[in-house]
Amino acid sequence: MKPKILVTRKLSDTAEEKLKKDFDVTLNPKDEPIPNNELIKMANEYDGFISTGFDKIGEEFFKDLNGKLKIIAQVGVGYDNISIKSAEDKNIKVTNTPNVLNEAVAETTILLILAASRRIGEAYNLVRSGTWKDQKPDLTKFMIGNSVTGKTLGIIGMGRIGRMAAKCAKAFGMKIIYYNRNKLSSDLEDGAKYFSDIESMMPECDFVSIHTPATAETKHILNKATINLLPKHAVVINTSRGSTIDDDALIEALQNNKIYAAGLDVFNNEPNLDARYMKLDNCFVLPHVGSATHETRLAMSMMAVDNIFCFFENKPLISEVV
Ligand code: DGY
Questions:
Q1: DSSP-based helix, strand, coil % in the chain, nearest 5
Q2: How many other β-carbons are positioned within 10 Å of the β-carbon of residue 66?
Q3: For residue 33, is pLDDT > 90?
């Protein structure tokens, strides 16, 4: 009998076709989110899940498992929606999709740096709303933003994505500084300057960009105290997870022009982000599209599918979390 696999959201066609060859697959062609209680009920009917960050696979999910479910292959590098400790306790393997999205998320980081510093949200809305013609373009005031070229980018979390963002930022002559749990080898640092504490790095940042996973350690890593250390012209960028930012602190800093701007792709409580962000001209917001390219989503889907193949063929997993 073929192992039964549940694919919780629509994957790329190529990945779904590959999976169907060797497994008894339940797909989600209409991409309807599966309610949490349904997902818990389904868990005992499948040998494997292909999940996404939208699925809540917390402690509750694992409580009444009967041993059938053996692997959860997450489509995403982040897996903060999964209780890793519970998976470990139940001897369930978890895999993710690292590396294949480095470029796409780095592209989004640069997009946010440019959009936030050059006031692209305001400029775009002006044209789309038909009110450009009513403006009196003024050489010193009309949509004037801040340059990016030659500025200092502080990276919080110099992992694979942080390093790719640094590499792209260098094309703009940006100077890279970083805060990380550990100092990297000079090879990986590639000229970036290390700060062992975030407090000393913040005053040096023209831009600060978060690239850490969501953990207890990184929760509200940008908070009132750390944001207050940024220069008044600084721009905050986030493509990691919303939990790394204390919304009250960032919104207060943006409202009172304690910093220049923010560019955010991720939020606490997505998609119900704090409504105050949408009222701020100096905040450029995106709907969590960091890895949203055809190429990247295909590579992520294929990696999750390949992890399922490896598991059931007793081969080493490509990207094992536990
Ligand atoms: C990830 O891979 O964790 C991304 O946030 C998904 O887009």
A1: 40, 15, 45
A2: 8
A3: yes
Give the distance (Å) from ligand 1 centre to CA of residue 238.
Answer: 12
Concerning whether 233 is annotated as a catalytic residue, the answer is: no
Task: State the residue range of the domain holding 239.
Answer: 102-285
Burial of 140 (0-12, 13-18, 19+ CB in 10 A): exposed
Residue in 25, 75, 26 with CA at minimum distance from that of residue 52: 75
Give the pLDDT of residue 32.
95
pTM of the predicted protein model: 0.96
Known active-site residue 270: yes
Report whether pLDDT(274) > 90. yes
Mark whether 72 and 197 lie in a shared domain: no
Provide mean pLDDT across the span 163-167.
98
pLDDT at 36 (0 to 100): 94
CA 100 vs CA 19, 131, 170, 291: distances in Å: 19, 41, 21, 9
Q: Which bin fits 157, alpha (ψ -120 to 50), beta or left (φ > 0)?
A: left
The binding-site residues of ligand 1, defined as CB within 6 angstroms of any ligand atom, are 53, 76-78, 101, 290-291
Are 242 and 168 found together in one domain? yes
Structure tokens at 182: 């550990």
Establish whether 288 is a catalytic residue: yes
Residue 147 shares a structural domain with residue 209: yes
